Amino acid sequence: MRSYFYWLLPGLLFVPGVAAAAESTVDSGTTAWMMISVALVLLMIPGLAMFYGGLVRTKNVLSTMMHSYVALAIIGVLWVAVGYSLTFGKSILGGFIGWNPDYFFLSGIDSTITDGIPEYITAMFQGKFAIITPALISGAIAERVYLRGYSIFIALWFLFVYCPLCHWVWAADGWLFNYGANGVIDLAGGLVIHVSAGVSALVAAIYLGPRQGFPNKPMHPNNLVMTMMGAGLLWVGWFGFNAGSTLQSGLDTARALTMTQVSAATGALTWLIIEAFTFRKATALGFVSGILAGLVVITPAAAVVQPVGAMILGAASSMICYYALQVKMKLGYDDSLDCFGIHGVGSGLGVLLLSFFIRDSWMADAAQAAGGSWSAFNQLGVQLVGMGATIALAGIVTYVLCVVIEKTVGFRIDAQSEVEGLDQALHGENGYGLVNSSLR
Hints:
The chain is mostly helical. The protein is built from 16 helices and four strands.
């Protein structure tokens, strides 16, 4: 009988239940999905680089793309060294920030498995969010900053804005996570990523001042084909961004993925319709702007709304963002690539409006948790507190950082280098080989 057991043992290890028990407590299916989500969010970095890179002038394409890529290195190292500890460690300083020495350099999570997922995967997933957030800000200050100043800025911004805010909203003992009866709703970074980046982008753009010649001198995109390809990569990556933020592979994941698709498509279609009535033509730039408007608005809401709500949010975001860009021109501030006008405005809209489109089952659970009734207006009040805290932290710290960096190492590039182009002045390269100066 024992000989039969030994023959059967290798086969038994391939039976799912037996294999899991024999190997570890890792949920291989969920872990596999989360690894894919890590890759999808990482894909958004080159996607953002292409999106931004195609929108600037030829003489600044490499410099602009470098702003996205350099965040991979700077924030990638800081996240492992201290970022994970500061965001998901135990609250200190009255809940302002996290702290866990075991998380420094991820030294204490080598064997940790939480909810079936190795903590290394969770840390890497969250780390990609930390990387892309300051990279978004670069769109508002493109074509006019030193790389050294920008690099120091994003490092300090990560430490003093992103880490505290992420702790407030997503850490289990964060004050916004527990504010009110059910906490602030922000699935994948409406506040943590897009509103914070948008507000900081606006402050930095106003402080640094406009590009030379803005708004009178034409500043046409150098490669809208590349911008459209970047937008496509962002759309694909956003499935990992939102659906991966459920940290599972189940019903909530399917809901988040579906709402992401619905809102993005509706946002793009709405922008096309607006341009059809306004200009009697559809522009590629307008289409990709609509995609982004639909994606950012659903980012905080994808786990709690249903398809009709996602469509309404996507359409509303496109309309509001479209007119936000018109207001920018009237006010005269130079948010080069409309970081505030789309990310800040669109996602801020989603953070607030989601309160009125929450599915009934979630609202019922919220009422039970509150020990009574819970309405959309109750949740709106919670969301407004989260919005106010985000705007205050991002706005104040960004202004201070801009002043300090400009007065020390320099932030705004010198006039001659701006005219020459940042690719040559800072990198000694041309994005397209031999460049005709007349095309710059």
